[in-house]
Every structure is written in C-alpha cells, then in structure tokens.
C-alpha cells in the first residue's frame, strides 16, 4: 500500500510502516537490514519484559498472561478505510481470549497470552503538507488499565547521528551502551534525530521516549507512556494509566526539518 503527498511517499504493509521517503531519502529502517526484523510495531497493553514475573501482569481483574511488550503485536490489523493520503486500521480483542504467543517455545514457556479486558485499537496514518501524522486510539470501558508505546525504527546513514531532546544531546554510542533496557528520555514530547537530515518526532499524550539499537545503521525512537525499567517486573502494573472515558487518542508527528 502506497500513499503520496507532494515529495512524500508512504509505504504500509498490513498496518506496519515499512517506508517513509521525503525527496527521495528513506527514513525508515528496512527489513532485512541489520538490527531488527521489523520497521514498526506497538507495545500494548503493557510495555517491557515479563519473564522474571512468570509472564504475569496484575490487573484490577486478576493476573493476565503477557509476554514482552504485550499481546497487541500478535493480532492482525483489519483495514477500515483508505484515501489517497490517509489509511485506518483496527485490531479488536475480547477479554480472556487466548492468543498464540510467537515467542513460544524459544523465548517463553507460555504458548498463549491473554488480557483481562476487551479493547479495540485503531491506528491511522495521515500524510499532510507538514509531514506524517500517526494516531493511536484505544477503545474500551472506562478505567481499563493499559500502557502504550510506539516502536518505529529509523534508518541511519552517517557515522555520528545524535538525538536531541531540548538541551540534551544523546549519541548513538550512549544508546548502544545501555543495551536491551533502552535509553530513557523522560518528560519530553519532542525529539530531533540529526543524521543526514533533521527528523523531528513530536508526540501528544505519551510524555516520554526510550531509545534502542544494537547496530549503527538504525535507531528505534519510541514514544512511551511509561518507562518499564523504573520498577521490578512483578510491579509492572504500577505503570498503568486508565481510560478516562470510552476512548483515548495518542499522536506521533514525523517531519523533516529543512
């Protein structure tokens, strides 16, 4: 699926952002390149690892079985609507429905995962004159607990890229040194990736980022509602927020600074 707007070309595969070109330059990490087997995904309804807690996360309605970063990524997107510049996808889940765990048996002893609440999750891509807008809307009953993280991977082409968060400049070597825990950037709704060009990533509703990579040719700049390594895995529920009504929307804006 390809959307175009001016000098922008957006490529989407089954709800996954697999390409974003502006003036011929590709900003998204390509599958098959070293670093990661995906180009984007979502972390929901939890963020972070669960192995040390027996793959259990406590909710107000009993414990749920969750693997790293939740079960949303195990569900398939349904195409809802499409225009020349906008496309909408949705995933739906019924409480306590077993979902096959792709990490079993190599990385998990749990063949199935489940959550204790119904939810619908909408992902919308919109190309505008100012760049790419990605919105995520969580639907459910009021007070449904959740965390949300967006996990895009960006292509790197220079030797010394940096991520700028206001007065802070974070080098690629700093991010790589933290390893799998990811470099935390807490309390910011905007960062700038300085590589060949400047890429601005601005958010609404997340409030934080974490940065991760193990290779010099890509970096994941991940908007998150909660940094999971602030607590022990058994206390991961401390990072929940709760739906204030029947839905809540989060946004990510990606644009190239000329």
TrEMBL record:
The record's listing under Pfam families reads:
Aldose_epim
Query: Is Zinc-finger set as a keyword in this record?
Result: no
**Cofactor(s) required, per the database record:** Ca(2+)
Write out the entry's keywords from A to Z. Answer: Calcium
Q: Which GO biological process entries does UniProt record here?
A: carbohydrate metabolic process
- For whether the record's keyword set contains Methyltransferase, the answer is no
Q: Name one GO molecular function term.
A: carbohydrate binding
**Quaternary form?**
Monomer.
Q: What is this protein called?
A: Aldose 1-epimerase
């Amino acid at each position: 699926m390809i959307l175009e707007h001016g000098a922008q070309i957006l490529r989407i595969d089954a709800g996954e952002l697999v390409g974003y070109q502006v003036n011929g330059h590709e900003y998204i990490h390509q599958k098959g390149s070293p670093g990661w087997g995906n180009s984007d995904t979502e972390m929901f309804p939890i963020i972070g690892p669960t192995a040390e807690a027996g793959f259990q996360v406590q909710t107000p309605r009993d414990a749920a079985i969750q693997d790293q970063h939740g079960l949303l990524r195990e569900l398939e997107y349904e195409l809802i609507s499409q225009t020349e510049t906008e496309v909408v996808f949705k995933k739906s889940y019924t409480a306590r429905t077993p979902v096959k765990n792709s990490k079993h048996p190599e990385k998990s002893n749990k063949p199935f995962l489940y959550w204790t609440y119904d939810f619908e999750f909408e992902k919308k891509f919109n190309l505008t004159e100012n760049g790419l807008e990605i919105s995520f809307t969580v639907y459910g009953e009021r007070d449904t607990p959740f965390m949300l993280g967006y996990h895009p991977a960006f292509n790197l082409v220079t030797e010394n890229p940096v991520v700028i968060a206001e007065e802070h400049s974070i080098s690629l070597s700093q991010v790589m040194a933290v390893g799998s825990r990811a470099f935390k950037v807490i309390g910011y709704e905007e960062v700038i990736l300085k590589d060949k060009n400047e890429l601005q990533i601005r958010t609404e509703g997340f409030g934080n980022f974490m940065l991760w990579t193990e290779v010099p040719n890509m970096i994941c700049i991940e908007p998150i509602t909660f940094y999971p390594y602030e607590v022990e895995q058994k206390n991961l529920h401390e990072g929940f927020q709760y739906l204030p009504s029947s839905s809540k929307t989060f946004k990510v804006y990606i644009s190239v600074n000329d």
